[in-house]
Design a protein that fits this description.
The protein is an all-alpha fold. The protein is 80% helix and 0% strand.
Length: 458
């Protein structure tokens, strides 16, 4: 009964991680087509969710790498128990939510690997991790895939601009097809994202089922596991997509259609090839590398190596940081069911706190492509610049109208005060002129009275 409870809890947390993976990485597929205006944000997010769902059913090689490769289980390997798998998931979820909240460049996939490895080392020792598989199918692909995708995007961008360069008359070829081609290429990236990332959660659920003796060693994920993970990542993509529409629609760096098509095609090719070979890639790193390469392929790009180094350091930090959190959770899990409950309560509180605090922040960078754009010094979006310019013009007009109204009111008050002052002065003059004749008459009568008095005395 106790083991069943832990298995159910692990499956629930794994599906929640799959959900967070969906809204954390929505920008990987749809950032560039939204930036170029090839597709509207709402349509892009809906399309990404559907294709993530479909992509999850295409392959299970990455799931097998996680369930029977990185973490040894059964068949002579070290048996890792479900409670330590739970601890690893908690480490991945907390780190994933924290980086989402603060807009740090990170990888959901590497957070999962780090959390599981840290928990496995604390729970079962160093021998529980197959570092050879980890090196060959995680570390080396993580270093090579972004470089390969970026170089491919660089060459494609150069080729696209060479084909459509200015002719002798100073005119360029028609580049509208690049924008329409982005609809296909971005859809391919969304499909590849579901194929690679959803499998990681399938591998975790399969691992816990094998460790609990509910599934035979060496078998792949069951159909119900594939379906549940596909639905979770698709739902996360759809719901999380609305959270980043503002980022994608207003703050994303400029990516021309030729660049976008090149970046998306390179990203999809790298991810699909890696999924076929069982390499557990970070789609965030591959997509960002492609955008970086396409930016360099466009004339006038200027690399900001300090920013690029900050991005790379954030990615390198993900695995050890998630491993530390997973190891701490595994240490608490040593107390049995009580420790598992404590881990779960801490995880729920941490996730709720991160989510609630994020709602009070007006601007949160949820797309790593902002940082990538800074790294290659790509200009801000024309639509955003035009919007800011129009907003400033409208504010200037409102300020001018208000200033004119205030001046008009001030002039009206001055005229009213002037009229009142003139009226009071006029009233004072009328009063003075009315009082002077009366005084003069009194003087004449007084003099006549004096004359009469004088005559009488004579």
């Amino acid at each position: 009964m106790e083991i069943i409870f832990v298995v159910v809890l692990v499956i629930a947390l794994a599906l929640f991680f799959d959900f967070t993976n969906g809204f954390h990485d929505t920008a990987n597929a749809m950032a560039t087509p939204i930036a170029t205006g090839a597709i509207k944000p709402k349509a892009a997010v809906t399309l990404a969710a559907v294709l993530n769902l479909v992509g999850a059913f295409l392959s299970t090689e990455v799931a097998k790498t996680i369930s029977g490769g990185i973490i040894k289980e059964g068949g002579g390997g070290v048996q890792i128990t479900p409670d330590f798998i739970l601890a690893g998931l908690i480490g991945a979820i907390i780190w994933n939510m924290a980086t989402w909240r603060f807009g740090l460049p990170s990888s959901s996939s590497h957070a999962l690997f780090g959390g599981l490895i840290g928990a496995a080392i604390v729970g079962a020792g160093l021998n529980s991790v197959d570092f050879g598989v980890f090196l060959s199918k995680v570390v080396i692909p993580a270093l090579a895939a972004p470089i390969i995708a970026g170089f491919g995007a660089y060459l494609c961008t150069k080729l696209a601009y060479a084909i459509t360069r200015r002719n002798d008359d100073g005119k360029t070829a028609h580049r509208a097809p690049f924008k329409f081609g982005q609809i296909f290429s971005s859809s391919l990236v969304a499909l590849a994202h579901g194929t690679n990332d959803a499998q990681k959660t399938m591998g975790v659920i399969t691992l816990v089922l094998v460790s609990a003796g509910m599934q035979a060693h060496g078998t792949g994920p069951h159909i119900w596991v594939i379906t549940a993970c596909a639905l979770a990542i698709a739902l996360g993509t759809y719901i999380g997509g609305w959270r980043i529409i503002d980022t994608l629609g207003t703050k994303l760096t400029t990516v021309k259609p030729a660049q976008g098509l090149s970046a998306e095609t390179s990203t999809a090719a790298a991810i699909l090839a890696s999924s076929h070979l069982g390499f557990a890639l970070s789609t965030t790193q591959v997509a960002s590398g492609s955008v970086l390469g396409s930016g360099l392929g466009r004339k006038g790009a200027d690399v900001q190596w300090s920013t690029a180094g900050r991005i790379a350091s954030g990615w390198l930090l993900t695995i050890p940081a998630a491993a530390i959190v997973g190891a701490a959770a595994a240490g608490i899990a040593h107390f049995g069911v009580v420790g598992v409950l404590i881990d779960t309560v801490i995880a729920v509180i941490a996730v709720l706190w991160i989510f609630l605090t994020s709602r009070r922040v007006e601007e949160t960078d949820l797309s790593n492509f902002d940082a990538v754009g800074e790294a290659v010094n790509i200009r801000g979006r024309k639509r955003k610049l035009r919007k800011d310019r129009n907003r400033k013009r409208a504010e200037a007009k409102r300020a001018a109208r208000r200033e004119a109204w205030e001046e008009k009111q001030k002039a009206k008050q001055e005229r009213r005060a002037s009229h009142e002052r003139k009226a009071s002065e006029s009233e004072a003059r009328r009063s003075a002129s009315a009082s002077v004749p009366a005084g003069q008459g009194d003087g004449k009568s007084a003099r006549s009275d004096e004359t009469g008095d004088k005559g009488d005395s004579k």
